[in-house]
Structure formats: C-alpha cells, structure tokens
Amino acid sequence: LLGIEPLHPLEITEILDLADTYAESARAGERPHRPLQGLTQVNMFFENSTRTQASFEIAGKRLGADVMSMAMQTSSVKKGETLIDTAMTLNAMRPDLLVVRHPQSGAVDLLAQKVDCAVLNAGDGRHEHPTQALLDALTIRREKGRLHRLTIAICGDIAHSRVARSNLILLGKMENRVRLVGPPTLMPAGVADLGVEVTDDMEEGLRDADVVMMLRLQRERMDGAFIPSEREYYHRFGLDAAKLTHAKPDAIVMHPGPMNRGVEIDGTLADDINRSVIQEQVEMGVAVRMAAMELLARNRAG
Ligand code: CP
C-alpha cells in the first residue's frame, strides 16, 4: 500500500468496509480473530510520529502479529547506513509487513522495490499518506452516511501536505467536490491543473461545505519558502466558529493532527464534540490500519 493513486474505488470501499467492522467490534469491546498470527510486522519511522506509529503497532498486535518498532534514532542509520541497506538488512530477517515513514517523497516506493515483503507507506515527504486518507474517508462515511457527492474544503498548507494529496486523490476517485483553500504561497505548483476549485478566501472556500478539513502548517518542509506570521495566518486562514458559519450547519471539522491550536484551528472548536471529529479520526486510524494489513496479508497468502 504505497499510495491512494493506484487503488480502484472498489478496493477503497473494500478496505473501508472491513475497517468499519473492526471499528464496531472495538466499540463493542470484542477482540478480533487473529489473522496476522505467526506474521512479523516491522515499523520503521525515519520521521517523528505519534498517531500513525502507535496505531500501526496497536493494529498489528490486535490482529496477532509479532510487532517490532525499530528505534531509528539508535539504529545504524545514525552511523550512515543508507535507507536501502537498512531495508535489505531487515528484509533478510524475513518480515511479512514493513511499515515505513520517511521524510523524502518517493523513498517508500524505492524501498518497496528492494524487499520481498508487503510494504505500507506511513507517509513519505509531501507525496502520500494513504492510511491517513483512508481513515479520513471512513470517518466522513460514518458521519455523513456516504462518501460521494459531498463538498469538502481542504484548508491550509496544501503545498507541503501528503495528507492533502492523498485525500485529494481519494475524494476525487469517490466523486466528491473538493475545494483547496489557502494562501497562494502554500498551494502546490500546477494546482490549476488538478481539476479542483482553488481559493485564498475562507468564506468562499467553506461555503456550503459538508466537511472542513484543516491542515497543519508544515514548517519543517518549508525550507526557504514564505512562512507567514502565525497571527496573520490565524486571522485569515485559522478556523474558528465565525468562519465555520459559512459551511453547512451540520458540517464536520477534521484535522489529521498534530494540531497547532490558535494557528490553523481554534482550540475550543477543535474540542467541540458537536462539530469536531478529530478524536474519531484517531480511533478510525487503528481500524483502517488493521483492515489494510489484513487485506495485504490475505492477498499475499494467495
Ligand atoms: N496524522 C499523522 O500522521 O500524525 P502523526 O505524525 O502523529 O503520525
């Protein structure tokens, strides 16, 4: 699972359907059967993570896998070992599933060409974060009762966001209307060719939206690019209750996390359980990662 791009809408639906059953059984306090029993899952995070790393680890353990999370900070990467040599070394230990996050776009695809096991992209640079888009899709489907013909505003730092990119692809495949909202300096090159509406006006971007998805300002990827002052950014692009009035009255508020409260979103709104589904997104992360790993293992078993 290297990205959303190669997935057919039916494959997306298959993952979401299985994830939904896992989400429901977790809420009912039921323990799932253990389809990954006897399989080894290795997590390699070359970039910081809370939600993705923890949920992949919990997902693997719930399904019975033997899970090892590499401590990359104390690995031989620090002695200069390359990504490919690290991956081939671990591959020789015969893992079944490799979960990889890396700061370079394309690094996970490259690694996948060098190993024999299933590889799951846990976020590569500004390229893709497929399981994030899948958990966002499951959250939307559960909240709105469908995953098509919705108006979805994705707001903020689009240029540096793999979350925006994977969501844009997935939501487009499922025939939704997607709007990108943010300052022109934080829009990717060639945005006009993406076939979506683009605006730097929050009122226009949020008008009649069913879903408002806020993004973090990714300062770690901005090397040299224009970085707005946080105060000015919040004034124009930060989501608060006043700006949200332009969306539909039942619009949901999403954020992939980690959040900068008072920069891209008002803290009170982020915690408002009547509008914000941010904690449900985290909950769906475990279910989606369980489903993705089970389906990959099943396909490989033949
Ligand atoms: N949404 C997300 O990828 O969060 P983490 O960086 O904490 O994994």
TrEMBL record:
InterPro entries: Asp/Orn_carbamoyltranf_P-bd (IPR006132), Asp/Orn_carbamoylTrfase (IPR006130), Asp/Orn_carbamoylTrfase_sf (IPR036901), Asp_carbamoyltransf (IPR002082), Asp_carbamoyltransf_Asp/Orn-bd (IPR006131). It comes from the Bacteria. One of its GO terms (biological process) is amino acid metabolic process. GO terms for molecular function: amino acid binding; aspartate carbamoyltransferase activity. Keywords: Pyrimidine biosynthesis, Transferase. It catalyses: carbamoyl phosphate + L-aspartate = N-carbamoyl-L-aspartate + phosphate + H(+). Pathway: Pyrimidine metabolism; UMP biosynthesis via de novo pathway; (S)-dihydroorotate from bicarbonate: step 2/3. L-aspartate binds at K79, R162, R216. Its EC number is 2.1.3.2. GO terms for cellular component: cytosol. Residues 1-141 form the Aspartate/ornithine carbamoyltransferase carbamoyl-P binding domain. SUPFAM superfamilies: Aspartate/ornithine carbamoyltransferase (SSF53671). Carbamoyl phosphate binds at R51, T52, R101, H129, Q132, G257, P258. Residues 150-295 form the Aspartate/ornithine carbamoyltransferase Asp/Orn-binding domain. Belongs to the aspartate/ornithine carbamoyltransferase superfamily. ATCase family. PANTHER family: ASPARTATE CARBAMOYLTRANSFERASE (PTHR45753:SF6), ORNITHINE CARBAMOYLTRANSFERASE, MITOCHONDRIAL (PTHR45753). Reversibly catalyzes the transfer of the carbamoyl group from carbamoyl phosphate (CP) to the N(epsilon) atom of ornithine (ORN) to produce L-citrulline. Heterododecamer (2C3:3R2) of six catalytic PyrB chains organized as two trimers (C3), and six regulatory PyrI chains organized as three dimers (R2). This is Aspartate carbamoyltransferase. It comes from Jannaschia aquimarina.
